[in-house]
Structure formats: structure tokens, C-alpha cells
């Protein structure tokens, strides 16, 4: 499970507007055994098919606030009415073992990690256009007219922050976007561990 390299791993942060393709790209990156996913904590309700501890740690608002008060989060943010947070402990552990630690978070969370000078590779996933972003959000079938409107409105503000990231990748062709993130993370050159 652990990569063969004895060197430190790194945080690979993937952020961008809702619907830009973060989850889709992360799923592809996770096919590589050198990459582990940062399981966030959230107060939102579990969606069908989601598993506690795999997709998220589903917490009550009280539990979340207690962890936040105890300093267990590297960052936390309210996103579309629910609380989300990145846990500090698992990230430090995975990076010490040499893994690429994949953190998929919203733009506010990424700004907090940047402000805290958290080391890592910061990648902004941009949609090819606002029109295409709208088409993808509609196509995903996850939004009400109101939530679609909110996400599109927020996307414009989020897009302005892209210059603060190390890399901006336009997710037009999915394979190309995944190849580019893999290259940035050094996953195209290093040898993958045995069994994969
Ligand atoms: P996010 O995690 O950023 O909210 P998703 O990964 O859920 O976005 O992607 C939003 C929708 O767009 C999904 O239905 C997904 O299948 C689709 N999608 C993602 N990348 C592409 C792409 N390169 N071309 C076309 N559709 C895409
Ligand atoms: P969803 O509820 O659809 O899985 O995620 C909603 C939004 O919350 C997405 O933009 C996702 O990237 C973001 N998110 C997920 N986990 C975290 C986290 O730990 N911190 C922050 N700031 N955002 C998160």
C-alpha cells in the first residue's frame, strides 16, 4: 500500500467551481495506488451510495464544532449551507509515508490553506466556459433551479481567484486534464508500486 519511495509525499490540492469536474478528475487520479484521498468531515446528510469514512465523515453540527474547537481541522468552511473541514492528522501521516495526498475542497478552503502557507501543489480546475459549466451542472442532475443559480453566481467569484494557484487546468477534454494533473504531480514519471 505504501509507495516504495522513502521520501516525503505531498499535498495535491484540487479546487475550483462546483461542476468544473473536480470529483471526476479525483476519481481518475485515485486509480493510482500512490494517491490517497483526504476524507473530509461534513455536516451535510449522506447521499445515496455514500459511505461514512470513505466519502466523508458525516458528523452532527455539534460534533463538527467540537472538533473545530479542538483544532483538528486544517481548514473549514461553510459550503452551500453545510460545514466541511479537512482533518489535520491523516494528512500528516500520509505525507510522511510518501503518498500524494489528494485534497478536493472548495475555493474558500483552498484560500485558507494558502493563507496558512500549507505546503503542496495547488491546482485550480476551470470549466471551458460558463455556458459549459451550466450544461454540466444541469447534466449532473443534482441541482434545483435555485442551487444551480447559486453555484453559477459563486463560480464567477471563484474563477477570479485562479491566479493564486500554482496551476490552472481547463477541464475541456477529461483525459487531457487528468494527464496534465498527473504530470504536475509527478505521477507520470515515478514508478508505480508493485501490484498495480
Ligand atoms: P465537481 O466535483 O467540480 O462539482 P463533477 O466532477 O461532479 O464536478 O462534474 C460535473 C459534471 O460534469 C458531472 O456530471 C461530470 O460527469 C461532468 N464532467 C466532468 N468532466 C467533464 C468533461 N471533461 N467533459 C464533459 N463532462 C464532464
Ligand atoms: P459535496 O457536498 O457536493 O460533496 O461538496 C460540496 C463542496 O464542498 C465541493 O465544492 C467540495 O469541493 C467542497 N468540500 C468538500 N470537502 C471539503 C472540505 O473539507 N473543506 C472545504 N472547504 N470544502 C470541501
Which small-molecule species are bound to the chains here?
adenosine-5'-diphosphate, guanosine-5'-monophosphate
Give the mean pLDDT. Answer: 93
Give, in order, the helices and strands: EHEEEHEEHEHEHHEH
What is the CATH-assigned architecture?
Answer: 3-Layer(aba) Sandwich
- Which descriptor suits the 3D outline? globular
Full CATH superfamily name: P-loop containing nucleotide triphosphate hydrolases
Q: How much β-strand is present in the residues?
A: 15-25%
CATH third-tier fold name: Rossmann fold
**Biggest sheet statistics:** 5 strands, parallel
Looking across the biggest beta sheet, what order are the strands in?
2-7-1-8-9
> Which consecutive residue ranges, at least 5 long each, have pLDDT under 50?
none
The total strand number stands at 9
Briefly note the structural class of the backbone. Answer: alpha/beta
Entry keywords:
9 strands, single chain, 5-stranded parallel beta sheet, alpha/beta, binds guanosine-5'-monophosphate, globular, 4-stranded mixed beta sheet, Rossmann fold, 196 residues, binds adenosine-5'-diphosphate
Structure, described:
The protein has a single domain (5-185), classed as P-loop containing nucleotide triphosphate hydrolases (Rossmann fold). The protein contains 7 helices and 9 strands; from the N terminus they run βαβββαββαβαβααβα. The radius of gyration is 17 Å and the shape is globular. The strands form 2 sheets. Strands 2-7-1-8-9 form a 5-stranded parallel sheet, with helices on both faces. A 4-stranded mixed sheet has the order 4-3-6-5. Strand 5 and strand 6 (82-87) form a beta hairpin. It has 196 residues and is an alpha/beta fold. It binds adenosine-5'-diphosphate (ADP) and guanosine-5'-monophosphate. Residues 18, 22, 40, 44, 75, 77, 79, 84-86, 104-106, 108-109 line the site of guanosine-5'-monophosphate.
Amino acid at each position: 500500500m505504501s509507495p516504495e519511495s522513502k521520501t516525503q509525499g505531498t499535498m495535491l490540492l484540487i479546487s475550483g467551481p462546483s461542476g468544473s469536474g473536480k470529483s471526476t478528475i479525483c476519481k481518475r487520479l485515485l486509480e493510482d495506488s500512490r494517491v490517497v484521498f483526504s476524507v473530509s468531515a461534513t455536516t451535510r446528510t449522506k447521499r445515496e451510495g455514500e459511505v461514512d469514512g470513505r466519502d466523508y465523515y458525516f458528523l452532527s453540527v455539534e460534533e463538527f464544532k467540537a472538533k473545530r474547537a479542538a483544532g483538528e481541522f486544517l481548514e473549514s468552511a461553510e459550503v452551500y449551507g453545510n460545514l466541511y473541514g479537512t482533518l489535520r492528522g491523516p494528512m500528516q501521516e500520509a505525507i510522511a509515508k510518501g503518498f500524494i495526498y489528494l485534497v478536493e475542497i472548495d475555493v474558500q478552503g483552498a484560500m485558507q490553506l494558502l493563507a496558512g502557507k500549507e505546503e503542496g501543489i495547488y491546482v485550480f480546475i476551470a470549466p471551458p466556459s460558463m455556458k459549459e459549466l451550466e450544461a454540466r451542472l444541469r447534466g449532473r442532475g443534482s441541482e434545483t433551479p435555485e442551487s444551480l443559480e447559486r453555484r453559477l453566481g459563486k463560480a464567477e467569484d471563484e474563477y477570479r481567484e485562479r491566479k493564486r494557484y500554482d496551476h490552472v487546468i481547463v477541464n475541456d477534454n477529461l483525459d487531457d486534464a487528468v494527464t496534465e494533473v498527473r504530470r504536475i504531480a509527478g505521477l507520470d514519471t515515478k514508478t508505480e508500486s508493485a501490484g498495480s
